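Now produce a polypeptide, keeping tokens residue-aligned:
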Amino acid sequence: MKRYVKLTVLSPVYIGDDKGQRSPLEYYLEQGAYVHVISEDKLIRALKECNKLNDFMSYLERETSPNMNRFFQQLAGQQNFVLRKATERKIKTKVSHLSNLRLHMVDPVTAEPYIPATSIKGSLRLALLYCLASRNVEAFRNKVKDAMEDRRNQREPGRNLDAYYFQRYDIAPNSRSNIGTRNDLLRMLKISDAFVDPHSRVDYVSEVV
């Protein structure tokens, strides 16, 4: 029997990309509204269009710690035009100050942020382990101790814990062993990737749901 369940998280879920922290020249903070992720190519084209590219280059040369917010103050009446043209996507925020920015990983095809199903399932696995271990903390401590002392499994002590808490259920028919990945409890759970909501794509806003 199949059941479909919708999960709503209590706090934001973050799975970062491989680029790490972004330079202050790669984003613009619209206080209490959005963080604009700036595209370098789009920015250059927009600055050329309004004859501000030389101003930008001069700003980079004289500033020791340049950032997009300070530069945009110099654009005056052309600020909205450049921002609209240079924004790759926007992220909703209520903050008035941003010291650093790390972005979600993106789909290599659509270039839009998403959360892989494997990451979601890993989070659920950790939450379930916490729930199961909390029922008998002493037994959990002993299992951890046994796993660490097992010389055959010293490189991956988590395997013993995985087998004990998740892989000893009678799930796979005709399985040769009662313990193993074929009898893993979470085999019964299928999760889809979380993508940007189509309704939030209006005006380049990207919210992963």
